[in-house]
Design a protein that fits this description.
The complex is a heterodimer of chains A (256) and B (289).
Chain A: E1 5-14, E2 17-27, E3 32-37, H1 43-51, E4 58-65, E5 69-72, H2 78-86, E6 89-92, H3 96-99, H4 106-116, H5 122-135, H6 152-164, E7 170-174, H7 182-199, E8 202-206, H8 210-216, E9 219-224, E10 227-233, H9 234-239, H10 244-252
Parallel strand pairs in A: 3-8, 3-9, 6-7, 7-8
Antiparallel strand pairs in A: 1-2, 1-4, 4-5, 9-10
Helix pairs in contact in A: 4-5, 4-6, 5-6
Chain B: H1 11-26, E1 32-33, H2 47-56, E2 62-67, H3 74-86, E3 90-91, E4 100-104, E5 117-121, H4 135-143, H5 148-161, E6 172-174, E7 178-180, E8 198-203, E9 208-212, E10 218-220, E11 247-251, E12 258-262, H6 265-273
Parallel strand pairs in B: 2-3, 2-4, 4-5, 5-8
Antiparallel strand pairs in B: 1-9, 6-7, 6-10, 8-9, 11-12
Helix pairs in contact in B: 1-2
Classes of the chains: A alpha/beta (256), B alpha/beta (289).
Chain lengths: 256, 289
C-alpha cells in the first residue's frame, strides 16, 4: 500500500532558533499518528508546515492526491494547495473560534466548505449540514444558531463537522481537546474515534495529553526541542518508553 | 471661468484616475486601487464618484446627478452645483439628454445609450467585506476565485428569512470571473447592469475604482433552488401610474397613510408630462412637479 503522506527532512527555523528539524515519517491510509511533546517542542510548527500554513525551510511533504497521485505539496501553487486544504485535507484548530466563522450560523459554517467546492443547491447543502450536525451530536434545531450561542464542547464538535463535511482523507488536529473539561473531552474523543474509524480517515494529532493519543493514535512520535526523539506504536512507546524524555513524559502523568 | 482647474482636480490627478478607469474597463469587475484625493465634501457623500466624474468630464458634457433616483435631494444638488462651478459644464435633469450621469444607489429607468457614461458612488467596494474583514485575505480570495463565502451570506439569508433577503448591493459575478458589489442599488436594478453605457464605480474612502464595459456579462448570484428575483413594491406609482418602475414608499401622515411613487423623479415627471396619471396624482403642467 502506498503511503498517503510522506514527510522527508522537514525543517523550519525562526531566525537562528529551531522550530523543528529533520522530521521524516510516512503516514498510511487509515492510520492515526500522534505527535506529543512539551510546549515549545515544535509540534505545532511541524503541523503548520505539513498543513501548508507555514512554509518550511527545507524538506518535502508528499501527499498522495486523489487526482494526480503523489505530489510535493510544498512545490504546488497556492491555489492548488488551498484547494487541497478544502477538499482532501481538514484542519481542526485548538480553539474552535479560529476554525469557525462566529458570525455565521452553524448550518452556514458546515455548508461553507460545500459551497467553496461548488455546491449551489440550498436544499442539498442544508440537508448535508443537518446530517453532519447530527453525526457530531448537535440537535437539528440548533442549525440556525450561531456558534457564539454554543458551549465550548459544542463549538469544537461543530468545527469537526465543518471540516469533515467534504469527506477529507487527511485531518490535521491541533490539540482538539485542549480547553475542554474532562467529561466533554471523553465524549469528544469517543466521537472522534468513531468518525475516524467509520470514514477510514488518516489523521495527525498534535497534543500534550497522553490520554488522547492512547485512545486515538496508532502510532506515536515524541518531540523535544524541535527533534523527534522517539517513534513507535502508541502502546509500545507509552508502556515501554526508551528515551529519557519519553520516560519523563510518561511518568509525569498524574494517576488519579 | 474661475480659478479652479477644469473639474476641480489637477491634470496629473485626473490622469492617474483615468489610468485606473482604463485598467478597470480592461478587467471588468476588478477593483483597481487608486490614490484617492481629499475632496471638498465628507466621505460618504460621493467623493469616489466625484473624482471619477471629474476625470471623465469634458467641457461639452451635459451632467446629470441623481441621489436615490431623485435629482432634487441634497447630495444630487450639491454635486451638480460643484461641477457647475468648477467645470462650467451644462447640467440637466433629463436622463436622455445627459452624457454623463453620476448616481447614488439607482440606475435610471430609461435605458441608457452607448453615448452615455454612468458613474456610481460606492461606499464599500468589497462584496466580501462583512464576511471576511481582512483585506489581505479578500484580495487573495479574488485572485484565486474563491467565492464560496459569498454564497454563505445568501445561505444565511435563506436560513433566517426563508428567502434571499439581500435587497440592495446584491453581489454579481462579472464575465464569469470577478464577484462585484454593484454599489447599494436595489436588486431590482441588477438586471439593468448589462447595458449599452459604460459604467464606472468610484469608492473614495476605500480608494478603489472598478468598471463594467458596455454589454458586459453580469450574473446575480443565487442558488439553484432559490433563484435570483429582482423585486419591487407590488404597486403602481401613485403619481404617474407606472407599474414597471422602482417605487419609494412615502409615509404621508401619522395615521398610517402612505403612497408609492417612482424613485426615478425624471422618469415620473416625463410620464406625467405625457399624460399618465396615477391613483393619487393630478394632471400637471410640464415641469410643475
Amino acid at each position: 500500500m502506498a503511503p498517503l503522506l510522506q514527510v522527508r527532512d522537514v525543517a523550519k527555523f525562526y531566525g537562528s532558533r529551531v522550530g523543528c528539524r529533520d522530521v521524516s515519517f510516512d503516514l498510511y491510509p487509515g492510520e492515526v499518528m500522534g505527535i506529543v511533546g512539551e510546549s515549545g517542542s515544535g509540534k505545532s510548527t511541524l503541523l503548520g508546515c505539513l498543513a501548508g500554513h507555514l512554509a518550511p525551510d527545507a524538506g518535502a511533504v508528499i501527499f498522495d492526491t486523489a487526482v494526480d497521485g503523489p505530489r510535493d505539496t510544498l512545490k504546488m501553487s497556492e491555489p492548488e494547495r488551498r484547494m487541497l486544504g478544502r477538499t482532501d485535507w481538514a484542519f481542526v484548530h485548538q480553539h474552535a473560534r479560529d476554525g469557525l466563522r462566529m458570525g455565521v450560523s452553524a448550518g452556514g459554517n458546515v455548508g461553507e466548505r460545500l459551497m467553496a467546492v461548488g455546491a449551489r443547491h440550498y436544499g442539498d447543502i442544508r440537508r448535508a449540514a443537518v446530517d453532519w450536525l447530527g453525526r457530531v451530536e448537535i440537535a437539528e434545531d440548533r442549525v440556525d444558531d450561531r456558534p457564539t450561542a454554543f458551549s465550548g464542547g459544542m463549538q469544537q464538535r461543530l468545527q469537526i463537522a465543518r471540516n469533515l463535511v467534504t469527506g477529507p482523507r487527511l485531518v490535521f488536529m491541533d490539540e482538539p481537546t485542549g480547553g475542554l473539561d474532562v467529561s466533554v473531552q471523553a465524549r469528544l474523543l469517543d466521537l472522534l474515534r468513531g468518525l475516524v474509524r467509520e470514514m477510514g480517515l488518516s489523521a495527525i494529532i498534535v497534543t500534550h495529553d497522553l490520554a488522547v493519543v492512547r485512545l486515538l493514535a496508532d502510532r506515536l512520535m515524541v518531540m523535544k526541542d524541535g527533534h523527534v526523539v522517539e517513534t513507535g506504536l502508541t502502546d509500545q512507546v507509552l508502556d515501554d518508553p526508551q528515551h529519557g524524555y519519553t520516560q519523563l513524559l510518561v511518568s509525569s502523568v498524574l494517576q488519579v | 471661468m474661475n480659478e479652479y482647474n477644469f473639474a476641480y482636480l489637477d491634470e496629473q490627478t485626473k490622469r492617474m484616475i483615468r489610468r485606473a478607469i482604463l485598467k478597470g474597463l480592461a478587467i471588468p469587475g476588478y477593483q483597481v486601487p487608486f490614490a484617492s484625493r481629499e475632496m471638498p465634501m465628507p466621505y460618504g457623500w460621493g467623493t469616489g464618484g466625484v473624482q471619477v466624474s471629474a476625470a471623465t468630464l469634458v467641457p461639452e458634457d451635459r451632467l446629470k446627478v441623481i441621489d436615490q433616483g431623485a435629482d432634487d435631494t441634497t447630495n444630487a444638488v450639491s454635486i451638480r452645483k460643484f461641477f457647475e462651478r468648477t467645470a462650467g459644464v451644462e447640467t440637466t435633469e433629463e436622463t436622455g439628454r445627459a452624457t454623463l450621469i453620476q448616481t447614488r444607489h439607482r440606475i435610471p429607468e430609461e435605458p441608457l445609450t452607448e453615448d452615455q457614461i454612468l458613474v456610481y458612488q460606492v461606499p464599500i467596494p468589497e462584496p466580501l467585506r462583512f464576511l471576511e474583514p481582512r483585506e489581505t485575505e479578500t484580495r487573495k480570495m479574488h485572485a484565486l476565485e474563491e467565492y464560496g463565502l459569498m454564497h454563505v451570506k445568501l445561505y444565511e439569508d435563506i436560513s433566517q428569512h426563508g428567502a434571499i433577503a439581500t435587497a440592495y448591493a446584491y453581489p454579481v459575478k462579472v464575465e464569469g470571473r470577478y464577484v462585484m458589489d454593484p454599489s447599494p442599488i436595489p436588486k431590482f436594478d441588477n438586471t439593468k447592469l448589462e447595458m449599452a453605457a459604460i459604467q464606472l464605480f468610484g469608492a473614495g474612502r476605500e480608494q478603489r475604482i472598478y468598471a463594467l464595459p458596455p454589454w458586459c456579462d453580469v450574473v446575480s448570484l443565487d442558488f439553484e433552488d432559490y433563484p435570483f428575483e429582482p423585486s419591487k413594491a407590488d404597486h403602481a406609482c401613485d403619481l404617474c401610474g407606472a407599474v414597471e418602475s422602482y417605487l419609494d414608499e412615502v409615509i404621508v401622515d401619522d395615521a398610517g397613510g402612505r403612497m408609492f411613487v417612482c424613485s426615478d423623479t425624471d422618469y415620473c415627471r416625463g410620464r406625467r408630462a405625457a399624460g399618465h396619471v396615477g391613483a393619487q396624482g393630478v394632471p400637471t403642467e410640464e415641469g410643475a412637479a
